[in-house]
Amino acid sequence: MEVRARAPGKIILSGEHAVVHGSTAVAASVDLHTQVSLRISTASESDDGLIKLHLKDMGLEFSWSIQRIKAVLPESSRHNLSSPKSCSPESAKAITNLVEEQNIPEAKIGLAAGISAFIWLYTSIHGCKAATAVVTSNLPLGSGLGSSASFCVSLSAALLALSDGVTMDMSQKGWLSFREEDLELVNKWAFEGEKIIHGKPSGIDNTVSTFGNMISFKSGKLTLMKSSMPLKMLITNTKVGRNTKALVAGVSERTLRHPDAMSAVFTAVDSISKELASTIQSPASDDLSITEKEGKLEELMEMNQGLLQCMGVSHASIETVLRTTLKYKLASKLTGAGGGGCVLTLLPALLAKTVIDKVITELESCGFQCLLAEIGGKGAEVCYDSTS
Ligand SMILES: Nc1ncnc2c1ncn2[C@@H]1O[C@H](COP(=O)(O)OP(=O)(O)O)[C@@H](O)[C@H]1O
Ligand SMILES: C[C@@](O)(CCOP(=O)(O)O)CC(=O)O
Ligand SMILES: [Mg+2]
């Protein structure tokens, strides 16, 4: 039994961090993906008794014997597929031991969280069967573009696509979408994986990676959005590494120290996200031209960035990108958890290509990496044939 699954990364146009505390946020998928190829041995096939994880881009391979997993994770018999369970503290400890035994290179130790999520999702959905998962990704890891969620969504999609938990026509060729209710199940399982990586995720990243498009999201509920204007975003990766779990925990600690002030910040972000969502969706008219709508978005992005600074998640490298784009009268904000990572800059529809080229050249001369990604594409998909 073999399948491939892919799931996109994302940008957050407004509301990161505040969304963890109940505010509205707006996000869109980007056309960068994590892809998982999964092969599970059937009862009739001979196998090597191993569960293998190959992180191909990094040239790393990990494997665990079925006996070892059974000994350390006694509850690893398959769970009820339709009601995903959270990883208990005991299981988390056992999984940490399984990961530590693999001697991950010190420079790549951040991968430990992703590998733990793999073990939890694999054993919960398929129990202890020999298998090989090969992962590739063109998303930068730990940069705010949701690589953790896209990893968990593509993994959950592949695992469920080879289970009886979803309904798929395995004889169909090419990339296939899930039914709505199956997408919801993929999303729930991915959220359990994302919890292992983020600690306390809001669920926005796995939701937009699963369903694709552009969404507004509040307290676990998504609303699909339909943009009525062109939205071109420049993504600048500062290449400053950071970790979402630590940044989310830092904002929670600040909230405990200053509950009233932070509650006002989160309320302001909620209003910004709602206004941003309605601006993006309202039809351009004589009252509000595309240019005026872009002006509104720019102001809202700048206000959101100011509030992210209040939360303590900006960074000197982010400030450099903001200053550089402002020289060209362009508005920017960090996207994702901040502390480094990626910055979004709105490129107005009528902006001359020469200006875009100039701003990119200047940002890249600072050592940053720029990309113009398409936003709002498809969510999780699977493919059963090896030719597509
Ligand atoms: N392709 C992958 N293979 C293994 N682990 C991954 C992969 N993509 C993401 N991860 C896990 O997610 C972590 C990065 O997640 P995070 O800090 O939330 O940043 P982001 O989601 O913005 O990329 C990595 O350190 C790793 O643990
Ligand atoms: C900061 C946060 O709002 C988004 C994190 O995104 P990323 O992992 O930095 O891509 C956290 C969350 O919503 O779970
Ligand atoms: Mg993440």
Automatic annotation (TrEMBL):
<dbReference type="GO" id="GO:0016126">
    <property type="term" value="P:sterol biosynthetic process"/>
</dbReference>
<dbReference type="InterPro" id="IPR014721">
    <property type="entry name" value="Ribsml_uS5_D2-typ_fold_subgr"/>
</dbReference>
<dbReference type="Pfam" id="PF00288">
    <property type="entry name" value="GHMP_kinases_N"/>
</dbReference>
<keyword id="KW-0067">ATP-binding</keyword>
<keyword id="KW-0460">Magnesium</keyword>
<keyword id="KW-0753">Steroid metabolism</keyword>
<keyword id="KW-0756">Sterol biosynthesis</keyword>
<dbReference type="InterPro" id="IPR006205">
    <property type="entry name" value="Mev_gal_kin"/>
</dbReference>
<keyword id="KW-0808">Transferase</keyword>
<keyword id="KW-0963">Cytoplasm</keyword>
<dbReference type="InterPro" id="IPR020568">
    <property type="entry name" value="Ribosomal_Su5_D2-typ_SF"/>
</dbReference>
<dbReference type="GO" id="GO:0005524">
    <property type="term" value="F:ATP binding"/>
</dbReference>
<keyword id="KW-0444">Lipid biosynthesis</keyword>
<keyword id="KW-0547">Nucleotide-binding</keyword>
<keyword id="KW-0752">Steroid biosynthesis</keyword>
<dbReference type="InterPro" id="IPR006203">
    <property type="entry name" value="GHMP_knse_ATP-bd_CS"/>
</dbReference>
<feature type="domain" description="GHMP kinase N-terminal">
    <location>
        <begin position="127"/>
        <end position="212"/>
    </location>
</feature>
<dbReference type="GO" id="GO:0005829">
    <property type="term" value="C:cytosol"/>
</dbReference>
<dbReference type="InterPro" id="IPR006204">
    <property type="entry name" value="GHMP_kinase_N_dom"/>
</dbReference>
<keyword id="KW-1207">Sterol metabolism</keyword>
<dbReference type="GO" id="GO:0004496">
    <property type="term" value="F:mevalonate kinase activity"/>
</dbReference>
<dbReference type="Pfam" id="PF08544">
    <property type="entry name" value="GHMP_kinases_C"/>
</dbReference>
<keyword id="KW-0443">Lipid metabolism</keyword>
<keyword id="KW-0479">Metal-binding</keyword>
<dbReference type="InterPro" id="IPR036554">
    <property type="entry name" value="GHMP_kinase_C_sf"/>
</dbReference>
<comment type="pathway">
    <text>Isoprenoid biosynthesis; isopentenyl diphosphate biosynthesis via mevalonate pathway; isopentenyl diphosphate from (R)-mevalonate: step 1/3.</text>
</comment>
<protein>
    <recommendedName>
        <fullName>Mevalonate kinase</fullName>
        <ecNumber>2.7.1.36</ecNumber>
    </recommendedName>
</protein>
<dbReference type="GO" id="GO:0046872">
    <property type="term" value="F:metal ion binding"/>
</dbReference>
<keyword id="KW-0418">Kinase</keyword>
<dbReference type="GO" id="GO:0019287">
    <property type="term" value="P:isopentenyl diphosphate biosynthetic process, mevalonate pathway"/>
</dbReference>
<dbReference type="InterPro" id="IPR013750">
    <property type="entry name" value="GHMP_kinase_C_dom"/>
</dbReference>
<comment type="similarity">
    <text>Belongs to the GHMP kinase family. Mevalonate kinase subfamily.</text>
</comment>
<feature type="domain" description="GHMP kinase C-terminal">
    <location>
        <begin position="296"/>
        <end position="359"/>
    </location>
</feature>
